[in-house]
## 1
Amino acid sequence: MPVKAPIKWIEVKRELSALSQPELIELVKNLFDQSHDNKLLLASRFSSQPLGEDAIAPYRKRIVDQFFPARGFGKAGLGEARKAIREYKKATSDLLGTAELMMVYVEQGTEYTNSYGDITEAFYISMESVLDEICKLLSSPQGKGLYLVFRGRLRKLAYDARDIGWGYGDEVSRMVGEFEEAMRTDGEATPDDEE
């Protein structure tokens, strides 16, 4: 028996346009109550307050649990951890929160390999890829003001990764060094900012 295709947006749009305002409000309320992601999407759209720790905490926990769950051993589910980052970014468009989750991903991955030994080349490629995304986000016009928020953590990451194999430690050191130099050149940091 053939599987029926899910409803298309055009059909949903047609039905929504026929609803009264109270019916629309009730529908949005039901969506709001349905999931944390829906609450986050609506909060980022309508709240005059910046998103706080309550908004990001469930996504951070999903990432951390892939490496260091409260019980047992982490499985290093990179796909699930990256999915948490994508879902938060899509729901909120919050650059600071997205950078925070990406940083948590790379920090946890680095701690994981320092705790359990060398992993695989694909693991390190994923870590480097997310670190590259962080550097791009923080050097973008919208993210430039966030560099100083993450500077200390980026330096610590380079230090923590220094002895990791597969060239990961060298690559993290290179990436962080080049990024810091670019930020210095762009006026985001000066030699006086050095810790």
## 2
Amino acid sequence: MLSENQLLNHIYQTAEMGQEGIRSVLKYAGEPKLVSALNSQLAEYEKLQNAAGSLLHARGEPPKGLGPVTKASSEVMSTVKAMADRSPANIAEMVIQGSTMGVTKSLRTIRECDLRDEGIRRLADRLLKTEQANIEEMKRFL
């Protein structure tokens, strides 16, 4: 069973990974509507990460961010894929894949957590809803 702090760290890291992924493809997105959608998603991930970080600090635990190797490998993979095909459809597909992984890992983590704090539950639900909304939003660019 995972602790609520572990779930908060998962939310923190998932939001950080979402930001990393969006930043790495944003520079290749030429379509103004796609750029706008990605910037919106980036802002929501920042809010989620800040909320998780605040809750962790309130519980006396500093947030554990992503390691440099994880960040670098994500950047390299995204750059290679985006450079090969800069179309809005390809960028949208990459974002959909990232958000789908976020949903999958988050559902698993939530189910493994002994979740009692309603505020943490709401934040976890907000992360899931954000990931699902991102997927739906990106579908229009396919």
